[in-house]
C-alpha cells in the first residue's frame, strides 16, 4: 500500500510496503530516477517485508530539493523511522548501492545487512568511467547515432524518454530495447537537476570506514554490465564481512537472471 513519508524539512516521499518478515528497504538507481524494482519486491516479499521508495524529487515523491548525498541519506533514515524499524537490511542498485553503503557507514547500528547490486565501488570515478563510456557506445551499436543526436540537443519530454530508453538499452545483454522500454513504463520523467547535483559531489574516501564496518554485505554483479566490474574489487577487499555473486546478466541482474538473483539475495537475507 502506498504511503507518504515526510522528511524533517517537509518534503513528501512516496513509499510502499509489501510482504512479511524482516524489513528490507530498497534504494533505487539514478540519481534522478525512481523505484523500478516492483518485480523484485514481489519476488522477495515471501521472505521479507520489502519497502520501496522514491528518492527526493524523483518519481512519485515531491519534486523539490535541495539535492545532496547527505540529504538523501537523511531521507532514507526518515523512511526507516516512518515504519518504526530499529534496524533494516538495505538493497541498493547502481547509484542506490552507493547510497545504501553511505547510509550503512553513517548508521551501522541501524543496518542489519547490506546488498550492494551493480554499484561502482569506492575508488575514484576516473578508474572506471572511461571504460564505461567505451562500453556504452559499443553496446548501443546502431542506436548510437540517434542517442548522440538526442544527447546534444534541448529535448522535448517525449525525446527525454526516447533518449533514456536508448541509453538504458545498453544495460542489457539480450532483448535490450524490450527491457529498456519496460523500465520506462510507467514513465515519471527523469529529474536531471537532481542527477547533476548529486553527480557533482566529490565522494570522500570511504575505504577506512569500509574496513571498520561490521555489517554483513553481499555484492551482486552482472558479468555483462558495461560498468567495469573491476571497480568494485577494492570495496570487496575492504569490507570485513562480505560475499560476492556474479550473474550472467547486465546492469539489472534480476531482469536477465531472476532465478540466480532471487537465490543469492534470499539466501543472504535468510542467513545469520
Automatic annotation (TrEMBL):
InterPro entries in UniProt: AB_hydrolase_1, AB_hydrolase_fold, AB_hydrolase_sf, Peptidase_S33
Record keyword Hydrolase present: yes
Gene3D superfamilies: alpha/beta hydrolase
Annotated keywords: Hydrolase
Family matches, as Pfam families: Abhydrolase_1 (PF00561)
One term of GO molecular function: hydrolase activity
Residues annotated as domain AB hydrolase-1: 23-155
Coiled-coil intervals, chain numbering: none
Keyword GTP-binding: no
Entry similarity comment: Belongs to the peptidase S33 family.
PANTHER family: HYDROLASE ALPHA_BETA HYDROLASE FOLD FAMILY, MONOACYLGLYCEROL LIPASE
Entry protein name: Alpha/beta hydrolase
